[in-house]
Amino acid sequence: MKNSLFIGLIFILFGHTSCIQEKKTDIKIIEHYFDLEHFNGEQFKSKNGAKINGANFKTKKFAKNGEYAVELSKDRNQYALHYTYAPIELGDEIIVNVWRLKNETNSGILTISTGKNKSFNIRKSVKTDGDWELLENYIKIKREITGDQLNIYVWTSELEKVYFDDLKIKIIKNGGYSLVEHPDLNQVEINISPKNFNKILTQREEALKSKILITNSDDWVKAKINWNGNSEKCKLRLKGDWTDHLVGQKWSFRINISGDKKVNGLTRFSIQNPLSRNYLSAWFLHQIFMDENVLTTHYDFINLKINNELMGLFTLEEHFTDELLIAQDRNPGVILKFDEGPLWLFRKKNNLKQVGPIWYQSSEIIPFGTKNILNDDKLHQEFLIGRDLLHQFQFSKGNIDQVFDIDKMAKFLALVDLFNAYHGLIWHNLRFYYNTETSKLEPIAYDLYTEYDPKDEYIPGFLGLNFLTKENKAFFSEFRILFSNKEFLIKYIQYLEEYTSPEFLQEQFEKNKSQMMFYENEIQKEYKFYHYDISFYIENAEIIREKLPEFKVDGLKLIDPKIKNKKKINPKKYSFDPVNNASLKVYSSVINNEAIIQYQNYYYKPLQIIGYIVATDTLYPEKRIRLNEYKNKDIIETKTTNLEFLIDKVIYQVVDEDSLYFQNVFRYRAPH
After folding, report:
1. Which CATH class is domain 26-172?
2. Of 30, 505, 607, 620, which is the most exposed, with the fewest CB atoms less than 10 Å away?
3. What class is the 571-664 domain?
4. Could you tell me whether strands 132-140 and 230-238 are parallel, antiparallel, or unpaired per DSSP bridges?
5. Which contiguous run of DSSP H or E holds residue 82?
6. With contact defined as beta carbons under 8 Å apart, do 95 and 80 qualify?
7. Helix, strand, coil share of the chain (percent; to 5)
């Protein structure tokens, strides 16, 4: 049998349960059990009166319980047990299971559809009972899969006859769960004054209304945090971009400890619903990244109370501070990211409209702790050097082995491939550390968790293979330049071979087994449906290993030192006003007592600079500065002018248009 080395471990992880005392909460739960023994005409009935179709396909040939099951085949009765529910809402959780008679080809599928061309299909069973096997499907209604109506049904695409029995449906409305004490976890209590808590409530209501959370420095409120008896002052605010971080009772918070104090060795961190990072998935990945000496955030589970009200199980993730670096044997220094603020402001202003600026290339590269970095000469210089390196990656230019620690990047992407954790590769989730000892950037694994794609049509693979086959040209295309480097490609293949080996996975499972069992038990106290499915990793590793030999030969075709994203920008595709901090960039530096002003136009039309703002004064130069339109994604023009004074803002227009726009000036030189 395949993967026999892991069978015992899987059994232990999936079979671990416990008895606990629950706290009653106001949760709306809709449950239906269709035993297929009660019917009227062509419809089956549940004990509480719900109806589904398929009674005309009932048979006494086989039955899991009672007398009846349904019989399906492609050429006759292809679909049955169709249940509908409306409306479904953000935060709803759906758990469905049905028994299927075993067959050699695993024919027969359980489907949940949300009415937005989103169908989640389950063909593989989670457990067996004699000749029958259980199919189970769970989904959380997130922003991208919210639809008008929930549809649940079973079907088959084969001529072979399949049999289903005993359908159970559970709909937990709006983020419901059983809140439970977790005495064996770190105990965290947060106390917020009524005034400050009302401010948080107002911010949450505004975010839910606009469907996006926009934060600024005014959102922070004072509070007190107690960690296992150690009490400190802090400031906190809501966190998360999309409002799935704010549904139900478990809201996400960013917390900054006041002064020079720490709790649990941390000065800044986030707390959030375990679902946000797919429960145990993120924790397990973080352990492996640390074990492989790839930077990542500290990640753990806590028991939370807010104003003496039980919030139950939360996850804690440290923020990007020196503590992260020191704990992983790096020198304190500069951590970089792409500024996503303009993206979310644009989406909020334009009702979640997606077509806007070329976000990735127009995103400003900024450091964490900007004020401290820019006020420290040494850190300021390190920021500029690190930013220039990341800018080369951003525009697919330069020698990539001079930009990144190639070994760390190869490990990082190979592990992302193995664990299907591509969410962390979205440009605004990327984080990098500038290592002054190597003068190169290192990736920081963040917002990475396994996304189990339950679609039956899911085709596993890996980044390098996708770039080779060009099946999806847009799939994280910014990483294509890495594969043009021979040294990276060799190391990437080396780590794919190592990480997909049965020995590597077995070692990691065994090393983390006791802690995984403990955390799974804690999660199941609140989320009873949850099982940590490590079999996905084993199967994905097998598929990658099968494709690697061919890729080792053909992958050399990816090596191209001149690779560039040469896609031209088609202005006919765009129709939006200039976006602050995205459409126009203005940089200011001082050389020989003269202000050097640099302009970069990321807008799809030409712009012109018509004035400057200095403190409270507005100045209009005699000659306007014209900036050509942004034409190619990987080429940005920089225009430079000299002034005798520093400026705070510029006033500009779109050429041949009347509206005025204002842009703040960055107090450092442009990247190159």
Report:
1. mainly beta
2. 620
3. mainly beta
4. unpaired
5. strand 79-85
6. no
7. 30, 30, 40
